[in-house]
Amino acid sequence: MDGMYKVITVSVLAICCWTGPTLAEEPAPPKLVLGLKACIQRALSSAPELGETRADIELAASKLAEAKSHRFPKVEILNLIGPVPQARGNQVFSPDSINQTDRLTWFDRADATIVQPLYTFGKISESMNAAEHGIEVDRAKQEQRQNEISLKVKEYYYGLLLARELKEMVLDIRESLTKARDKARKLLKEESPNVNELDIFKLDAFAGEVDKYLEEAKKGEALALSALKTQIAVSPDVEMDIETERLTTDEVSIPDLPLFLDASKTQRPEYKQIDQGLRARAALVEAAKAAYYPDIFLGGYLSAAYAEKRDRITNPYVPDEFNHLWGGVALGLKWNLDFGITGAKVAAERAQYNRLVATKEFAESNIPLQIRKSYLEIKEAEKSIDATRSAYTNAKKWVVAALANFDFGIGPAQEIFDALQNYARMRADYFQSLYNYKLAQANLAYAVGEAPL
């Protein structure tokens, strides 16, 4: 038995020595570290909703190609092959009858017509204009969708930074609280008059509450990171982090409000959509009104037919539908007259146009309001940052002084509770103000219509 154990031990060691270097040589997958711009770029390159907008643009382009195609000739060809009674003789006499079914032959006939539009009173040209402006509308929609995606990425990115700052704050408080608990137990053993068992219970209870907040902060960080990964199409299994370490202000001056209002008129995709949409709707109204007028065209016709056992008739007064060759060219006019149908279509297109006019009025009043709201939120956040920075700085000094006094045995434990609670509240408000500032900047960029990158 001892020999068998030695053999097994030596074999296991040999396997470990043989596989160990192989496992060590396998490189670990690199950690993906992305900045804000890189996250936005990944989101824009993988967003499925942008695929929908690209398909809309392609659809609008196909409508333009269809409208342009109406300018070119249209050719129709009809070919028939079938049985027909034979016909011998000439245009005056034939021994055959049209009702004879015992003397059948076959025929092959082809008819071709070609129609070249010359003037349609705007039916084609206005349809082309509408399709061209429709393409611009869909392109503006794509820009709007890109801006929405960029705003969502910024929200998740800054949300992750906020969660991490709050987690670090809770860890800082837990560290200070741990020191206070250790010191309290020490002073209690030394029978210090400033500490009693009730203080220990309070510190322990406060420590449990801090641990709860710490777990909530960790959960918030994990959820924020998962949301960001989902938005930028990164697999949950991929280890990822962001380049930005702290939530800070940009230290840049914000221009005056009128500059943002003026910039939005040329940059905001919604303005582009409405402008191009009005042009498209106006063209569609004109195209519908063109139906009141005729179409002038140049037409050509060619017909050829051949049938065995049918003599060819050359008399132009007696045409043979099954054995002939004729053709011609003519100037034509096609006019569709209806009783109210065209008027109803014109009214429907004009109603769509008026609806878009109302949308324009709504946008012109609400987009500036959205810009003002984001601008005022930035100003509010700037003041809030300064106020909460001063508040949490003084609260931190309060914590240090309370801990020092408690450490020297001259301060009560209650002072530590009050100091830590106020410090946590002020510090959390400070980070929340920073987050509000960054988010207000992102909302302002979206409201103005700035490009994502």
Question: How would you describe this structure to a colleague?
Answer:
- It is a single chain.
- This protein has two domains: 324 residues, Outer membrane efflux proteins (OEP); 87 residues, no CATH class.
- Helices cover 65% and strands 13% of the residues.
- The protein contains nine helices and six strands, in the order αβααββααβααββαα.
- Helix 3 packs antiparallel against helix 4 and helix 8 packs antiparallel against helix 9.
- It is elongated.
- It starts with a helix and ends in a 5-residue tail after the last helix.
Concise description?
The chain has 453 residues and is an alpha+beta fold. Helices cover 65% and strands 13% of the residues. The strands form 2 sheets. It has a 4-stranded antiparallel beta sheet with strand order 2-3-5-6, with no helix packed on it. Strands 1-4 form a two-stranded parallel ribbon.
**Beta-strand residue percentage:** 5-15%
Question: Rg to the nearest angstrom?
Answer: 42 Å
Can you count the beta strands?
A: 6
Number of domains: 2
Per CATH, the architecture of the largest domain is: Up-down Bundle
The low-confidence runs, each spanning 5 or more residues with pLDDT under 50, are 1-25
Average pLDDT level: 88
CATH class of the largest domain, named Mainly Alpha
Topology as a string of helices (H) and strands (E)? HEHHEEHHEHHEEHH
